[in-house]
From TrEMBL:
It comes from Nonomuraea wenchangensis. Residues 1-23 form the signal peptide. Pfam families: Exo_endo_phos, F5_F8_type_C. GO terms for molecular function: catalytic activity. Keywords: Signal. Residues 457-614 form the F5/8 type C domain. Coiled coil: none annotated. It comes from the Bacteria. This is F5/8 type C domain-containing protein.
Length: 614
């Protein structure tokens, strides 16, 4: 038998002086160029710094061959990686996902290899997700509709390995739903990780299309409620070790980090301190990490096959909060050396999502919380991790999902639960080298969240001073939620409606709610900025609590010359993120602005600041 031809080409690190590599200096047989603002460039200049670009690879196309192209953009002086991509092509053309051109000198590291078709490797789709009470929304959905929609969504993702947290009795329905109508060669098997008689204790699960060789059962160092897995065999005979993880959720840092970021953004003291926030990992999670990495994984994994973990780690990413991303949106200049996730970094594990989406500012990847809001600081607590001692695995793409499928939007479930759980799902495509055609279906990709700057720049124009503004509202909480607080210039005060469950509906009418701003005279407006409430409240123990109830999600902006006759100028929607949202008006003339909030989180309306610009 003739051995399939395989030729490896040496990686080339090309120094870009001062901005980019010329095409003539490309790696091996491929020529590289850049697509920036729709233009193809060989040498991006200083005017492209901070802009979104992609890298184009052009090379030979030979019948019966597959090219693998690996590239990275690295800042030369600091060594920061801003982009990674692994691409496969049979026609000699490939394009990376977007990256932001960094300041100063940077390098393009590029290499390519060629494989005979059928020898590039096997694509595997991974998915991890906390299902919130087995898809019942923690028991709040008695109809079963959310679980039904959840299964439809997972079927569209179509993972090969599905790491599940909070199965809680829905595992049989999920398996049946995933396998309904599938070919016999495409069926899932169910691997129980947490073994318990009562459904409410059956936490961790694996669903997989791969052959299950061995199930990794409970070890004394950590219970199967928190960790366990299986050895899975690929179609080409190779295998991987797959583990589902749920780390302790006590001492959540979501509210303290929101509070820290908001205060740092506006120059206020950070309380609790970063050291106090870091100590929350010490309570339970760090001991679990030590047990997993030092005892359990070494007990089961005796070879160099790839190790993959998926689950809800209830901890923030060490790599996201290094100095590289201190100026990113939602970081407010802060660096936080998270101890729990750093244990996995030190043990040789890579975060799949951050590995392929290297820029935490451009690709924040929030997974918490799709229900109660994402807050001011990007909270990523659900991960797919991998360890690959023999470089047998390639990360092709990864994304987070935090929104229902279009056909599931608009219904009663969607109003309170815009996703099927309070956690986002993490999906990734990887390739294990060896026999196989290489990527054989579209790669999952994250959409860039292009938002330069730690806090959004103000819209064009001049802000109207608070002293020239007044405000009224259709409903408000006296003193603590007076509408005047929305135009007082202080982002730490806010207007707040009564809650919709108040006894007297004349005091607390259901949405829509109206808040009206009188600008004192007719103005020619360029924009209006809305800032949702920023301040955290404090518990009796003086711990910060984030309550995004009232954050507007959908509404209409209206204008008037006399406060009687109103005209609609914009339909507005906002993400569940604590940050300013601008509506551009382009010369609209009005004395009065009125925001009609049709849908606010929790049925209430809250706004920290309304600032018109002229």
């Amino acid at each position: 038998m003739t051995r399939p031809k395989r030729r490896l080409l040496i990686a080339v690190a090309v120094l870009l002086l001062p901005w980019a590599v010329p095409a003539a200096a490309s790696a091996a047989s491929f020529v590289y160029s850049y697509r920036c603002d729709g233009k193809i460039l060989t040498t991006p200049g200083p005017e492209q710094v901070g802009k979104l670009c992609t890298i184009l690879a052009n090379g030979p196309a030979v019948a019966g061959q597959v090219h693998e192209i690996r590239m990275a953009i690295r800042q030369r002086t600091l060594g920061y990686v801003w982009m990674r991509a692994t691409l496969y092509t049979t026609n000699g053309k490939a394009e990376s996902h977007p990256f932001v051109v960094p300041q100063g000198e940077f390098e393009l590291d590029a290499s390519d290899a060629v494989f005979a078709q059928g020898q590039a490797g096997t694509q595997v789709r991974l998915m991890t997700w906390n299902l919130l009470g087995g898809g019942t929304l923690d028991g709040k959905d008695y109809t079963g509709e959310n679980l039904k929609q959840l299964i439809e969504y997972v079927n569209e993702v179509n993972p090969d390995v599905f790491f599940v947290v909070e199965a809680y009795g829905s595992e049989t329905a999920i398996l049946q739903g995933l396998n309904a109508g599938r070919a016999t060669t495409d069926l899932y098997s169910s691997v129980p990780i947490t073994v318990a008689e009562e459904a409410k204790y059956r936490n961790l699960w694996l669903f997989t299309k791969l052959k299950v060789v061995q199930r990794y059962t409970e070890r004394p160092e950590i219970t199967d409620f928190h960790f366990g897995g299986a050895k899975l065999q690929l179609p080409n005979g190779k295998h991987i070790h797959a583990f589902t993880v749920w780390s302790r959720h006590e001492d959540s840092v979501f509210a303290p980090m929101h509070h820290a970021v908001v205060n740092a953004q506006f120059g206020k003291p950070i309380s609790p301190s970063i050291n106090t926030i870091l100590s929350y990992d010490d309570t339970k999670r760090n001991a679990q990490g030590q047990a997993i990495l030092q005892k359990v994984v070494p007990y089961y994994v005796k070879d160099d096959a790839p190790v993959i973990m998926g689950g809800d780690f209830n901890a923030w990413s060490y790599r996201d909060w290094t100095g590289q991303f201190a100026k990113a949106r939602g970081h407010a200049g802060l660096t936080v050396p998270w101890t729990y996730t750093k244990q996995y970094v030190d043990a040789g594990f890579y975060d799949v999502f951050r590995y392929i989406n290297a820029d935490a500012g451009l690709y924040p990847g929030r997974t918490w919380s799709t229900k109660s809001g994402f807050g001011a600081a990007p909270a990523r607590i659900d991960y797919l991790l991998f360890r690959d001692n023999k470089a047998q695995m390639r990360v092709l793409g990864a994304r987070t999902d935090v929104r229902r499928l279009p056909r599931h939007q608009g219904g009663y479930l969607d109003q309170e639960y815009p996703f099927y759980s309070d956690h986002g799902a993490v999906i990734a495509d990887v390739l294990v080298t060896g026999t196989g055609p290489g990527p054989n279906r579209p790669i999952v990709m994250e959409k860039p969240e292009y938002a330069p700057g730690a806090w959004p720049a103000p819209p064009a124009g001049t802000p109207i001073p608070p002293a020239e503004l007044s405000a009224t509202a259709s409903t408000f909480k006296p003193h603590v939620g007076d509408p005047r607080l929305a135009v007082d210039g202080d982002p730490f005060t806010y207007y707040h409606s009564w809650y919709p469950d108040a006894v007297d509906p004349t005091v607390s009418p259901a949405q829509p709610h109206f808040i009206t701003v009188d600008m004192g005279q007719e103005r020619t407006l360029s924009a209006v900025r809305f800032v949702p409430k920023l301040a955290a409240v404090f518990s009796a123990a003086q711990n910060p609590v984030v309550n995004m109830t009232g954050t507007p999600l959908r509404g209409v902006l209206e204008i008037s010359a006399d406060g009687t006759w109103w005209a609609q100028v914009a339909s507005v929607t906002w993400p569940r993120i604590t940050g300013p949202n601008d509506v551009h008006l382009d010369g609209v003339k009005a004395r009065y602005l009125r925001l009609r909030v049709d849908n606010g989180m929790g049925g209430a309306t809250a706004i920290a600041e309304i600032t018109p610009y002229e």
